[in-house]
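*** Backbone structure tokens ***
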Amino acid sequence: MIGIGKKGKEWIKARKRLKEEYFNNGITRCEVCGSDWALSFHHLDKRSSGKAEHTFEATRLLCQPHHHKAEYDREFNTTLRNMSRTNHSQNI
């Protein structure tokens, strides 16, 4: 079995910090639909691109269906990038 690499270890640490930051900002549900099922952090820039940042500003908390949509729909991803964080529970 192959061990976790440098990037994987960085992501594990960042994910823990992001969970706390999102909770402290009152974001505990999908930022698009308000679902609390199967949540994950979506990087606005793909992690494989080398431009991705593990920060509150560069990620969005999304349910699985919206995370999948954001991965493959550039227009939707742009909408996520430009959305206001003050109304995070409203539908896009």
About this structure: The mean pLDDT is 88. The beta strands are 39-43, 59-63.
